């Protein structure tokens, strides 16, 4: 049974469980098991190393990694010394990574041998003083199962510190005291999210934000010691982080971690390791339903499957199709965002309803207000702006005091989302109030994509909008005005963009036009372009 909140950082929970249940498995990575005692020891070693090189409270440690044990060890090792963690999307190309590392003012980064070449090209643009290089083989069993998706390679790069060098040194094995933190005031991590201008901003989340949201999620879903939570969601993302490396450790459970999703490997993991809880996206469930292993997989240990409507909305029919084979329904994950540490509403297991986003979790208040007058709270089935307050709401945007102030109405966070409460008190998310594009669950900022496309030698002007995509929910489409004499094909532009930005960002469609619609002041009217597509 889950114990109460202790008002302490999550790494302290790991240490507590290392004493209470030392041999219990905290982490399983392709068959490599790490106990709570071992995980705590690894966290302490890494925190000792950080202190030895001068990383102190308030410094930023960036993590540019795929899902792996090193990410979790580095995350909690950094927080143990009071450092701020800055997760970086492993899909980032040079310019995206450079922007975030500069904005973070990161002093140290942990990355992998496969991603280092991207970092190498931009590291001199940043404030980085130390680069730690990991190799996935360090925490893989001799025969990983399911088969590991990455090619295993061991490479050394000049000017970097190898992860294993740290853990092989006896000087870092000693016990050290954790740096004291203020749970509600000190920043634990900075995760980048959207803004009204389309420029990525760092959302500062505190230690209390994380403890509270991890606890509420564990409590709501009845997680406890001995449970196994299977996670393939990327842990640099707030949802994957909450489910894959926070909630399990506040409950004394096991995180079954996969690097990336494939229906075969996911079903093999269920069969081999018998998890109790699944967190998926709806497209994942659909792809598993279409896989031949689905009918032979043993789902008998599964208590619950939270399904997130990334790309495809969860419907009763999809849930019924799943339940017919797996034996249990799919539950809509709820509503949330990075600034609120996500999952601020959840679906009651005894009141399953589809096409909605659950009810506010304990301690969280959500209200719908008139989008033009926040003082006017709306009644059931009236559409308006979603405002939210609670212990999981972030501290503010890094270095952007004015934008932080504009993001709050009193003590309510102004989400920028439209929604309503139905007659049963369920929240219904209706979409973004801004021009933000939501692709495969990721935020895509039109202005950011446009800035990169404008660097192409043939492009004079460009505007990017979101278009419907059956797989991703939305994709980017670029409307381009070419320079005089230029004659590229749509395929040439898309191919160029694909090399310059993350897979969820680059435009999947391109249309060449003579002029962009604009206001008298010269602002591009993306709305008109989006309406033309309809």
UniProtKB/TrEMBL annotation:
Keywords: Ligase. Gene3D superfamilies: 3.30.300.30, N-terminal domain of ligase-like. GO terms for molecular function: CoA-ligase activity. The keyword Hydrolase does not apply. InterPro entries: AMP-bd_C, AMP-bd_C_sf, AMP-binding_CS, AMP-dep_synth/lig_dom, ANL_N_sf. Residues 448-523 form the AMP-binding enzyme C-terminal domain. Residues 20-397 form the AMP-dependent synthetase/ligase domain. It comes from the Bacteria. Belongs to the ATP-dependent AMP-binding enzyme family. This is AMP-dependent synthetase. It comes from Kurthia sibirica. The lineage of its organism: Bacteria, Bacillati, Bacillota, Bacilli, Bacillales.
